[in-house]
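Researcher: Next entry: Molybdopterin oxidoreductase family protein (Rhizobium mesosinicum).
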Amino acid sequence: MPVTNSDHWEFLCLLGGRALAYRNRMNIATPIHAKSRIGHTACPHDCPSTCALEVDITEDGRIGRIRGANDHSYTSGVICAKVARYAERLYHPDRLMHPLRRTGAKGAGQWQQISWEDALDEIAEAFVKAEAKDGSEAIWPYFYAGTMGWVQRDSIERLRHAKRYSGFFSSICTNPAWTGFTMATGMLRGPDPREMARTDCVVIWGTNAVATQVNVMTHAIKSRKERGAKIVVIDIYDNPTMKQADMALIVRPGTDAALACATMHIAFRDGYADRDYMAKYADDPAGLEAHLKAKTPEWAAAITGLSVEEIEALAKLVGTTKKTFFRLGYGFTRQRNGAVAMHAAASVATVLGSWQYEGGGAFHSNSDIFRMDNAELTGKSMKDADIRMIDQSQIGRALTGDAVALRHRGPVTAMLLQNTNPVNIAPEQRLVKRGFARDDLFVAVHEQFMTETAEMADIVIPATMFVEHDDIYRAGGQNHILLGPKLVEPPPTVRTNLFVIEELAKRLGVADRPGFGFTAREMVDRVLAASGLPDYDHFLEHKWFDRQPAFEEAHYLNGFAHPDGKFHFRPDWVNGAAPNKPPASLGALGPYAELPPFPDQVDVIEVADRDHPFRLATSPARSFLNSSFSETKTSRQKEGRPEVMINPVDAEANGVSNGDLVRIGNVRGDLRIHARITTEVKPGVLIAEGLWPNKAHIDGEGINVLTGADPVAPYGGAAVHDNKVWLRKDVTKEIA
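Model: Predicted structure:
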């Protein structure tokens, strides 16, 4: 299904100066009722933007339209269409409303409605039995970012530590990116992201912002409109963000570091490098320059698939534009060399001295600026370093008895899951499903919908949504802490995450331990007080708190955050600091010994070969957010069906026509999927957009059958865009 002009109406409006039309188009949802009030909150989803929201609330206590807050300087009145339609999700007829007990085989869909008391009693009883048989580490509470609210997301950690349950290494999403950036700068912060609206060039590297971070485009296009700024997009296919670019560079997956190295080579060669800046702020510019002598445009062209002319043009543009803002995303780091790629891309800004200027420098995340204290919330005082830590990305291996994944200790026999759907989103899906199918594994899932993980549970309990409970949020892609107060009453039979944790703590005998016994609002206040921030009532009045540091700190003009005050061209890949560094019990992960001493292309990726001639990336879709929103009718209609994008050259060579079923596979498995023939992907590259439910696929197996759980060096992460696969036309009949 080709992308049509109507898909890009929002940005065409903005390009034409019709910002109001763009804003209205982005916020179509249920109509505003004549008698309503406006509630203020924050988007809870796993997105760096953490948009400030205005919610229309009707007289009968229902939400109507949701839109971006006009008076919020980053959201600037614009939010993504899927969140604007949130009423469709809140009032979905398939929303879970009652606790359920499995009555048939796992996954058979046979359930009995039970009371909340019975559900919680049975979960606690199963945990007690598992601990009595195999020790406390047999229980593994498992969660992630279905909500980014601190209280509702992270309280499960307090129960974990109080009970000495198995630890949770949250590796799957951010680690390669965060590790690569902090190895360079020493801290996860950067220029004020609002400076994208005051720059002369924005380089959007490795993120399809139109689909995943719409506010990046809002500010970048403002700079283009008001200042004539150029927008450069670097990615692996011609996605909607590419279509907004003045310079669009499509690289082969996993080759971003080569492009960064060639750009820096040209900067040194042609005099764009700011030697005075590097002499003051960088650790070894002379060593870097010598290292880059061989990293010519010709060298990079052979690796990236770009032409020499494209590489030269990029280097000249950023080299002659002092105010260049490098907006570095997550997508290009979800390769096995992702940390190296992030470090190399951030290094370009330092070679050019871009950090010195407003609208210049490199930005990935502001996570380290907020200085929020979650010690009581997560029960850190009760954490035991001797308790094993299991990698979230390796859930399939852990649940099927892999000794390394289990740290050579006993099995996991009981789980509580909140805010995540690993049967759909975790790599090595066949292992994950096999693990959840174990008869000796007790699983409780607290969810909003009957996800494919919930379908494999023994007990399913219904959860609130973000407008139905109190919480506090902090952004990653911007600079605000935002309050998410309860705006409407939840259905009477659903409960918050915090309620479940508190009730289990009572039944498991730890309710008297530190951090338990508080309401969500009280816990928000306790976090704020511990962090030296204004209280809940202040946030209720003012809605958010700007934590952006001063220009000199944000741009590292007082020195970078390493002890020596330098930007590190030479990272310490094994001992360097990182926001989510594995504990000592895990140590460095992946092929860390192969990581280069300076920015470089390192092929620890799954390089295409004769038996697997294609590179597959599992890129995000515009209407889904991980597995969220895939349940709503409008999002599913907009996305159509699961498809794999194939270049016409590859399609012809394999006898594939548009709409044909093809089979793609690798050592981890294979699946059938419909082909979409398009020039938006380069030859040798396949793109499967959107994390569709497994059951939406022809044979009930989704794209994560093909993704691996081996950790990204040096500190872990899942390389979900880094897959070598084979492809062939499928000649079997499609099952209706």
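Model: Note for the record: The longest helix spans residues 116-134.
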